[in-house]
Amino acid sequence: MFLIHALSMAFAMFWEILWALILGFALSGVVQAVVSKAEMSRLLPDDSPRTLAIACGLGAASSSCSYAAVALARSIFRKGASFTAAIVFELASTNLVLELGIIMIVLLGWQFALAEFIGAPIMVVILVWLFGRFLSERMVETARQQAEKGLAGSMEGHAEMDMSVTGGSLWSRVTSAKGFTAISHYFLMDWAAVWRDVAGGLLIAGALAAWIPKGFWRSFFFTGHPTFALVWGPLVGPLVAVISFVCSVGNVPLAAVLWNSGISFGGVIAFIFADLIVIPIIDIYRRYYTAPIAWFLTWTMFVAMSVAGLAVEILFKTVGWVPIERAATITEAHVEWNYTTVLNIVFLALAAILVWRAATTGGFGMLRMMNMSPQTQGGRHHNRPRHIH
Are 152 and 373 in contact (CB under 8 A)? Predict the structure, then answer.
């Protein structure tokens, strides 16, 4: 009975966000189809404010998959980009993307989405300051030497694939046959990259909502002590994320459960920020840059995420934007004829069109190479689908 209840709640959240997921990944595919990865390293040569702003913009135009973001950050670092700019790009890839904002609006509300997009630049500023104080040239050189070894991580093939369409206006690129194909391929790859996180996040969220009494969460988050909870939430939020193993947009359903259960507003934001310090990604940092650099990235990101979450809550409390009601969309599973069902039908049709286009233009061949390293892909060049330029 408990299992059925948990699965029921997981399905309810999935049904609520299905259309938003499809819309988000479709828009992400459009952006990636017109933004070339080939220029990223050239545009990120140093740690200047202009370069870091470009890194944020490029990250926002990239895939929201945390593993692909980490792999692409190492790739552009190896090609000459600044280490700080590469990490800033990585943070923006998972915190400033359109699909994340859409899902947050649907499940949590516009206040959380706005806090995410305001808090992410604050987090970047804090992280850059920490790097300036504690990141030495020797550490960067150590990270570069380790990165050059090319040890396998995850989603490296996805990170390396560049199917962007060049030449002509943005509109002509998006509406061309090649643009349509590129969008469909990115749509398919992004879904393949994050479906485990989305499914895992929904199942964990459903289990927590169904099985753990709210009294436990209220005690854990110190809801009876508002001043202490203000600080405690942004500190404990990333720690919950670290052990949840869920990243990318998959942690938004879990954030909704935590919000309904009593965690502070800033704790929710810090929790969502922390998708880049979950345990599997920390292990990838170790392989990419050595264990000391992995530890450095973990603690600096943790500090930046926690302080940014706290800063956003104080700001939003000041202007009166912190929601009073804890009513994130977590409902019992049922399907009825309402706007959600209509939107799901419309966007499922869109998804079917994009998947059909990808299937008929070599997209599924690319899926088989998503977890391959670029070296392995090179050995299978004769099986590689055409890149689109």
Answer: yes
